[in-house]
Amino acid sequence: MNLTFSEKIHICKGFIARENLTEIELKQVITILNTKITEATKYFNFRTLRKLIAFVQYDENKARELFRATTEIDEMKQIYLEVVKKSDVVKIQILVFMERTGRSRRTFFRIKKEVSVKVSRKLNADTKTNNDERGLEQIGKQK
User: Fold this and answer.
1) CA-CA distance, 8 to 46, in Å (whole number)?
2) Tens of pLDDT, residues 33-54
3) Model confidence over 77-122: pLDDT tens digits?
């Protein structure tokens, strides 16, 4: 099951609402989730969310530090995301990426594909036209 990043965050917020947390703990978990988790976070899953909730319940003041220490960031994806936010022109994005990482243009596009594949899968599933439905009906009638 491949979920997009935004789908994972939405589901996580649903889980958080069901947890037995105080108002302050709830705000702290959501704040950390929104600020510290990005598409560049490696291995972000629901177990990671459980760790975050446990850290906040243990010590709200040290929760950020504990969470940051136990999660990994994919540095190439992080740089890619920063570069894309700063410039709309792909040529400039490539040049800045290559300058900051020392990696090739091909690596830029490989990372771009990794990040955007998850988004395009969702778009393909969500964008169904009348032609698609008619085509599916015709296939069903042929069987």
Assistant:
1) 8
2) 888 888 888 888 888 888 889 9
3) 999 999 999 988 999 999 999 999 999 999 999 999 888 765 545 4
Closest CA to 79 of 104, 98, 64, 105: 98
Handedness of CA 81, 87, 91, 96 (dihedral sign): negative
Quote the radius of gyration of the chain (alpha carbons, Å): 20
Angle between helices 75-86 and 105-126 (to 10 degrees): 80
52 CB neighbour count, 10 Å cutoff = 25
* Burial of 10: CB neighbours in 10 Å, binned 0-12, 13-18, 19+: exposed
pTM score: 0.66
C-alpha 107 chain-centroid distance: 19
Identity of the residue numbered 53: I
Q: What share of the chain is helix, strand, coil (3-state, %, to 5)?
A: 75, 0, 25
pLDDT of the residue at 124: 52
